[in-house]
Design brief:
Two copies of one chain form a homodimer. Chain A is α/β, with parallel strands linked by helices. Helix content of chain A is about 25%, strand content about 25%. An eight-stranded mixed β-sheet of chain A has the order 9-6-10-11-12-13-16-17, with helices on both faces. In chain A, a hairpin with a 4-residue loop joins strand 3 and strand 4. In chain A, helix 4 packs across helix 5 and helix 5 packs across helix 10. Chain A starts with 12 loop residues before the first strand and ends in a 17-residue tail after the last helix. Chains A and B meet through strand 18 and helix 7 of A and strand 18 and helix 7 of B.
């Protein structure tokens, strides 16, 4: 007859007998009542089927008091402002509905990630909870203003934003423009699998994010798995990064630049890109420039596409377009679907038109072929090695400034390397 | 005083004294009168400034007769049908205008690529000469019909199509559907730099294409540089490949599959993907199915985007849409810009709507999150790991069949793995 289980609690060190083998580790919160989630000494997590567990021993209770103290802030550890905004990293399975519930307060965060609280005092804030496909420029503005306040709070060492993966690279690009040159690390992180699964990537991403947020690398950056292994994360420049895989843990890839650094779960940081502005911490305040004009659009050009799509956006009172052009910067330039006369007409009427590379990797160059030169003559501006997604965000941000609205100053601002969105040193490396 | 140069001709083996060093190699045709283009024994090409050359010796004249014979077909070598369609690989600098001229006949091809004619008898055809951004479905249909004729000509061992890079992956996807299971190799190739530059990638790509076209791998495939080195090419499946860099020689990358094989300039072929249908040559005739309905469009979704773009395409009498969705298959699903009610309405009215991954890498999965399930309930179909570009081509091709026009058969055909466009074995490998 099986002994009734003692009721171990998350944070307890326990040993478990399963199929006549013993596993020892720290119990984590699991939202599947049929699964015991155990953090092994190696740092790996395993999910054990309760029905296969024949014995559980509590080796060491986590001190209740210690837990409370930590949630109240130890007062001894550096303070990190932690913004929960939604996404898989902030979700847990709801065993009743089979759906997903948001994880919204410090206590819940502690239940899943106790080790984070060993490193930093966390002030958890949750301005909104959304899947990232439902975020828009209003959310970017709100987040920029909040993060700006944290950056200007001298008690705060750094900021972490947890976020859905799908459009995280849009938010990180928006923050890079709205916050400008920051005085402390602003770390955006994520997970591809929800936190209460044994295979989740969130634990490594979060602990590495904590160390990144304490570092002297004052940048808006993404921190997440560098590979499919659970060994270290990359710090990636927030406006030159893109989600490149539907499900892999290392889905975020630096595009046209190197990762900034490797960050390990023991806190070690290895610089990779020494070009990055390693300014160190400053006591200076930053000025948040959180504006956006939504009258912008992104068009991915494909063969045979009618240029009438341009007229559609004009009719919709769009002020600026980013076109994902092919190769070095081309669109259809002959026959009945010639884009050039339509572009010329709209640009004359005041539309701002920018080209970004559909290949994602590499740099546009309008000078190699005559269609590129013609596009430039009629007023299309070529945005070098910028990501199309980043170009759209930058255009909305630039047009959000009434004082920059003249065609010359808009053009100049779009071509200016505001915060590293162009890699002027880009060679022919793929840099994947 | 400098001696006047003898007039060596392309194909001659010459030695050149330049800055007191000697270089030996085969003279290639150069369209810059100030540059001598030399193919070294190593296979590398160098461009030498004429003004720095102090002496040229002709070591061995290329036999005129041999050249003529080869252009008339040796009758001893296997016959390849070679379709020149434009693009950088078919262009040469026009020294008078500084622009680009097309290379359109066998003699010109021979002038630049004599080594190709050592391997195969080439029948050069040029149905049209276009930059690939100006090609559309009419060109795909024309090309498919021509290539189909070649495949059904028992004298022909294989087909090579030279093509601009920008939208080569659209043409190769179109041919993969229009030609179906082929009986012989159909090789599409390209270059990133024009043929008369010393650094051109066209020479390796062409010689490897010739060996690929003689192989027993009966597929529609791309052949081009596997890396930045000039050592070998990859054979890449034509409907799972994408231009991923604006300027690199190895710009074409297999997406969600392995390369088929390596092919070396000495003719050696090393298989990589043994899953590929290595059917070998068959004497069977193929049936070309070259149809296309242009009433299709590709939309790349971005955060905050209004779903009104869907209504625009409906008004334009569009019959089918491919939407590049985020992550596992999401679009904006709440608030005033909720895409779901608009999609539902249009699908009810008969619009075909398909989802493809915006990440490019990985596979959509509508079952993980509720927005994906909702999209599926209203009739959006998820196309797994297909490339968005390939999905658009496939949709136009499927809708081009009047007999498949019912909503059930269109849906089934789009979800059917017609010619390897889905990788059913895809794991979580990035496979870059």
């Amino acid at each position: 007859m099986k002994k009734p289980f003692k009721k171990p609690e998350p944070g307890d060190k326990i040993s478990v007998k399963i199929n006549n083998k013993e596993e020892t580790g720290t119990l984590l919160e699991s939202h599947d009542p049929g699964v015991l989630l155990l953090k092994l000494e190696s740092g790996y997590n395993i999910g054990l089927k309760r029905e296969e567990v024949s014995e559980i021993k509590v080796l060491k209770k986590r001190k209740k008091q210690e837990k409370k103290e930590e949630l109240k802030m130890s007062g001894k550890k550096p303070i990190i402002d932690f913004y929960l905004t939604g996404g898989t990293i902030s979700s847990k399975l709801d065993p009743e509905t089979g759906g997903v519930k948001w994880l919204i307060d410090a206590k819940e965060l502690f239940g899943l990630y106790p080790e984070l609280f060993d490193v930093v005092d966390v002030r958890v804030k949750s301005p909104f909870m959304k899947a990232s496909e439902n975020m828009d420029s209003k959310d970017w503005i709100r987040l920029a203003k909040l993060v700006g306040k944290s950056l200007n709070d001298e008690n705060v060492k750094g900021v972490i934003v947890s976020h859905g993966t799908d459009f995280l690279h849009y938010t990180s690009a928006a923050l890079s423009f709205m916050l400008g040159k920051v005085n402390k690390p602003v770390v955006l992180t994520y997970s591809q699998r929800s936190s209460d699964r044994g295979s989740s990537d969130s634990r490594l991403n979060l602990i590495c994010s904590a160390y990144a947020a304490l570092s002297d690398i004052a940048e808006v950056m993404l921190v997440g798995h560098a590979s499919m292994n659970d060994d270290f994360c990359f710090m990636l420049q927030g406006n030159k990064v893109r989600k490149m895989h539907t499900s892999r843990r290392d889905t975020f890839r630096p595009i046209n630049c190197k990762p900034i650094a490797k960050v390990f779960p023991d806190g070690k940081i290895e610089m990779i890109n020494n070009d990055v502005n390693k300014r160190g911490r400053s006591d200076g305040k930053i000025k948040v420039d959180a504006v956006f004009d939504n009258r912008v659009a992104l068009i991915k050009f494909y063969p045979g596409q009618s240029p009438d799509i341009l007229n559609y956006y004009k009719k919709k009172a769009c002020r600026g377009l980013v076109i994902e052009m092919s190769g070095l910067g081309h669109v259809l330039s002959e026959g009945k679907n010639n884009w050039l006369p339509v572009l010329k007409k709209l640009i004359k009427k005041g539309m701002f038109v920018y080209a970004a590379p559909q290949t994602l990797y590499g740099r546009l160059d309008p000078y190699v072929y005559s269609p590129g030169r013609k596009l430039q003559e009629i007023g299309v501006n070529f945005l070098g090695d910028i990501l199309p997604e980043c170009a759209l965000v930058k255009l909305g941000w630039v047009l959000g400034h009434p004082s920059w609205r003249g065609s010359v100053s808009t053009k100049l601002k779009m071509l200016e390397n505001v915060n590293g969105e162009f890699n002027e040193r880009l060679g022919s490396e793929f840099l994947i």
